[in-house]
Amino acid sequence: MSTAPNPVREELPLTVTAWRDYDPAACALPGMSLGDHDISRTVAEESDHLWNLGARRVVLSEPVDLGHAAVATPSTARHAVRALSLVRDLTARAVLVEWSLRLEPGDDETWKLLSHLQPPQRMTGPQGADGLLLTWRRSHYVCKCLWRQGPGFIQIRDRRWGDLRRFTSDEPHYHQAISALDYGAPAAAVRPDVLADFAEEHLVLAVGELVWWLPYRVKRWIQEAMAI
Question: Considering 35, 43, 105, 189, which has the largest number of Cβ atoms within 10 A of its Cβ?
Fold first, then answer.
């Protein structure tokens, strides 16, 4: 009996343009452009690669669309999660990310879950989207919602809601769940009780058939770690 090979999972194209500086005027100088990059490897690898190239400003070529119809298929859900993961991982390095966000019309909540990410250039969907985006920009800072691993425990520190909320666990299955959800996974890949805890704390986002881990593992501290 022969076994058919597993089909290759094709990803929708994700392209970014990168520069060596945050300032558009500096980006216009010779040697500052890093050109276009197709995100074809894992997002973690691509984030490291862009950083090591010297990228400090990155522009996503297409909007991140989280509307119900836009993430209705497995491939489009994965595509949206890959784009969000890139924004998250570059935000963790304090890279300037220029991107656009489309939400379902009337969705007034998702932007709050994403408010620890570099604010988009444009957001559509919620009523009064321009005002909400202005609030996002004014209140954003690096390390707003992060997770870290200590000796025998994990801790999430979340300031998206105006106060400091901490979630700490020394149980290995919580760390296993974060590893599974970090770049998106079906809900069935995680223990239901753990997923329920994460959802109650607003630490995950449903994107089509996938569940995605929101906090980032910080790469650059803005001040002494004990003060965050």
Answer: 43
